[in-house]
């Protein structure tokens, strides 16, 4: 008896006390615990336990690996006829199947919400960027509890779940250590997260999180972000399979590339030198011809006309051509480098013997290629997104630095159009295929009827969830955590993978982004466009008219020819269907504004403690999002810092906002108070003042006065201590755009990309900062 009891105890401690209990139904999650069926007596030896319950995935459920890249466009990768070599994607396509009519929503957050939930983006509550939520059902900016993510469903069905990279589904006011964390990956079903919860990040010096905790900046060891993400995927899978060899995993890899900033290793950029000197018009034609030859697009597909708003390559000056060609070289290098990292992950799965039992989906972009840098391109995307007034001489002076840590570049819109060949327009266009059509590769060993084939069936990012559920033999749940679920909007793609791909399969799918509307219905496409180029904003009180056009995609694959005049009845039928779909999925009200004009400032201010006149920060090593409260630009305030300095020539940041691409820093330079304001890296947009005297060692105090005479106008900064002025500087403007999206307001350090050069590493203060207060006028 003692021997038996000892064996039972050992087995229990090892977690193998009993086999998994079969789950009869999985439409309610978590799966309810079975009733107790044993016997309880006063003595355990006279009692009978119920076998221990362990939720397991259905027999034969595969591992799942999903990758979605960023802003790639339909035709950038060689796997879809593009000019950028992506051999690892090509190898996946050779054993899997390419989808040449796969669609996204037109912009970051909505595509990611639709991917994770299987619901249309407005239906999931994310009709636009999570950074700009509004109080309408389709635009709250957070994934609704009624639309549980695939990570939640798989985890509650016996999978391990992990996410790596970009998660642009956390509202800006929820990105600090104060949370709430319901909308972070770890609150949406991912047991492990390593990445960033915002729209973009620097590849060289990113602010990253593991779970909900910031990662030490030294952890990167100089590796670019894409490499770090792939390495962590591999590390996690090694440990997951060590701990639970028979348990399937769900890995979601979401690199921030090729979203701006376009950055890549110098040796990779060098590989593309001169490859784009012929310009976007010729490259676009080359891609089109290559796609026809490869069968990526059907015979007879037209190359759509270049819009008049996008300049012809031959109209550029020699300097503009050199700059533009170099920006494309960098973007190409970034995608090629991304493909190399994908290859590392896939090869390791193969080496481990896991690839044959892994469903792989690689989505080339969360929308079309981005034209947000406008006709001229940029070396500082966020600075120029609203007003494209960068000094061209300064832009061209940085040609040799493009792709490195000193630029935040994005290419001109002409290249974005080329990377969407042969389609119309670019990212943000829910009305045009160039904004919403992306290449996708689906691979699953033993389940692909025609390896290497191209499937022309209409498909959408909402189809990934039902595809995964069918592969895992799981139902879409009816209840999750007690919350009744909305039906999944997508359709499984496994039939098409197994040989039943049907280009004429009936399907209805709406599109909408910033008031640009589209509707696909059984081969027809309705387009409603408001005329706003993606690189421009509209005034807050603007209500543009929508121009409706109609396309027969059965005969016109690239959406080249408007046939509304020839088919007025079809146009009216499509308009009626569009209105019904818009009402059904909470698309209304339409908002045509792209930028800050659409933000409900009162609601956001209330969420962020708006109306406060004073903010206090206790201690150094404090970091909060740069675009959270308090907003430390554009209005007058006084900053008081209590310091305890280790020595008379102490150095380091006292308070630093954002980065060299947009930010400011109050710091000490060998004891001397200093202030730097940087709208960009352009010397004409930088102001610095340094005192000629140092603060004393030990306890001291420093005051910074930020005075603005008129909202948005010039400002003056005055540094003082104990009533004694230490320096002042005039700023040409009081407003800047903190860049990039994940930069912070830091106390006692400057994390991520620094605002300026410091004596100490990352601006760490040599001493202590017991208290900082900010008081607004």
Automatic annotation (TrEMBL):
Molecular function, one GO term: hydrolase activity
Enzyme Commission designation: 3.1.6.-
Keywords: Calcium, Hydrolase, Metal-binding, Signal
Signal peptide: 1-22
Xref: InterPro entries: Alkaline_phosphatase_core_sf, Sulfatase, Sulfatase_CS, Sulfatase_N
Pfam family, one: Sulfatase
Superkingdom of the source species: Bacteria
Coiled-coil regions, chain positions: none
Domain Sulfatase N-terminal: 62-472
Annotated family: Belongs to the sulfatase family.
Protein name according to UniProt: Arylsulfatase
Protein source organism: Novosphingobium rhizovicinum
């Amino acid at each position: 008896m003692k021997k038996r009891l000892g064996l039972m105890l050992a087995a229990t401690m090892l977690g193998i006390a009993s086999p998994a209990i079969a789950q009869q139904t999985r439409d309610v999650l978590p799966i309810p615990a079975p009733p107790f069926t044993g016997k309880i007596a006063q003595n355990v030896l006279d009692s009978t336990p119920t076998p221990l319950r362990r939720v397991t995935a259905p027999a034969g459920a595969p591992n799942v690996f999903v990758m979605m890249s960023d802003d790639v466009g339909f035709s950038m990768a060689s796997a879809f006829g593009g000019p950028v070599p992506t051999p690892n994607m090509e190898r996946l396509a050779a054993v899997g199947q390419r989808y040449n009519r796969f669609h996204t929503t037109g912009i970051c957050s909505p595509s990611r919400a639709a991917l994770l939930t299987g619901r249309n983006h407005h239906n999931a509550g994310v009709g636009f960027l999570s950074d700009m939520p509004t109080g309408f059902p389709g635009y709250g900016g957070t994934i609704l509890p009624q639309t549980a993510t695939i990570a939640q469903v798989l985890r509650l069905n016996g999978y391990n779940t992990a996410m790596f990279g970009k998660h642009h589904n956390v509202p800006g006011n929820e990105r600090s250590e104060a949370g709430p964390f319901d909308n972070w990956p770890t609150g949406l079903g991912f047991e492990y997260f390593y990445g960033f919860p915002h729209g973009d990040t620097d590849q060289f010096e990113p602010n990253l999180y593991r779970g909900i905790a910031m990662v030490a900046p030294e952890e990167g060891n100089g590796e670019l972000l894409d490499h770090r993400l792939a390495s962590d995927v591999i590390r996690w899978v090694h440990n997951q399979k060590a701990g639970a060899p028979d348990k399937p995993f769900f890995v979601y890899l979401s690199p921030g590339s090729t979203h701006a900033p376009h950055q890549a290793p110098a040796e990779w950029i060098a590989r593309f030198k001169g490859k784009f000197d012929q310009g976007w018009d010729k490259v676009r034609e080359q891609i089109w011809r290559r796609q026809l030859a490869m069968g990526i697009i059907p015979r007879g597909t037209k190359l759509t006309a270049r819009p008049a708003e996008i300049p012809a390559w031959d109209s550029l000056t020699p300097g503009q051509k050199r700059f533009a060609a170099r920006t494309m070289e960098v973007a190409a290098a970034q995608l090629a480098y991304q493909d190399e990292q994908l290859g590392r992950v896939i090869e390791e799965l193969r080496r481990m013997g896991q690839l044959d039992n892994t469903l792989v989906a690689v989505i080339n972009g969360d929308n079309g290629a981005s034209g947000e840098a406008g006709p001229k391109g940029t070396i500082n995307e966020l600075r120029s997104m609203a007003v494209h007034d960068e000094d061209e001489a300064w832009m061209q002076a940085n040609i040799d630095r493009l792709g490195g840590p000193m630029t935040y570049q994005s290419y001109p819109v002409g290249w974005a159009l080329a990377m969407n060949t042969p389609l119309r327009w670019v990212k943000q266009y829910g009305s045009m295929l160039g904004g919403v059509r992306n290449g996708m590769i689906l691979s699953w060993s033993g389940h692909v009827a025609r390896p290497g084939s191209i499937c022309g069936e209409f498909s959408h990012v909402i189809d990934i969830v039902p595809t995964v559920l069918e592969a895992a033999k799981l139902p879409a749940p009816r209840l999750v955590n007690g919350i009744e679920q909305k039906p999944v909007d997508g359709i499984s793609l496994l039939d098409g993978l197994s040989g039943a791909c049907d280009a004429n399969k009936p399907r209805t799918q709406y599109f909408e982004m910033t008031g640009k509307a589209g509707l696909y219905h059984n081969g027809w496409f309705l387009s409603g466009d408001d005329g706003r180029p993606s690189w421009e904003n509209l005034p807050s009180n603007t209500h543009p008219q929508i121009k409706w056009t109609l396309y027969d995609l059965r005969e016109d694959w690239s959406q080249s020819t408007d046939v509304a005049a020839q088919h007025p009845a079809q146009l009216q039928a499509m308009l009626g269907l569009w209105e019904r779909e818009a009402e059904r999925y909470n698309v209304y009200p339409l908002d045509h504004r792209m930028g800050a004009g659409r933000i409900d400032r009162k609601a956001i201010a209330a969420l962020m403690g708006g109306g406060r006149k004073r903010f206090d920060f206790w201690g150094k090593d404090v970091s909060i999002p740069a675009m959270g409260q308090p907003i430390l630009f554009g209005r007058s305030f006084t900053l008081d810092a209590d310091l305890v300095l280790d020595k008379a020539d102490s150095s380091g940041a006292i308070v630093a906002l954002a980065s060299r691409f947009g930010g400011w820093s109050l710091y000490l330079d060998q004891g001397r108070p200093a202030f730097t304001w940087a709208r960009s890296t352009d010397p004409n947009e930088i102001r610095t003042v340094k005192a000629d005297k140092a603060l004393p060692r030990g306890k001291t105090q420093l005051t910074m006065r930020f005075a603005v005479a008129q909202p948005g106008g010039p400002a003056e900064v005055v540094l003082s201590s104990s009533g004694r002025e230490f320096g002042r500087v005039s700023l040409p403007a009081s407003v800047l755009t903190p860049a990039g999206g994940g930069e912070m307001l830091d106390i006692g350090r400057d994390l991520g990309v620094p605002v300026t050069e410091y004596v100490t590493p990352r601006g760490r203060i040599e001493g202590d900062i017991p208290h900082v207060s900010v008081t607004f006028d």
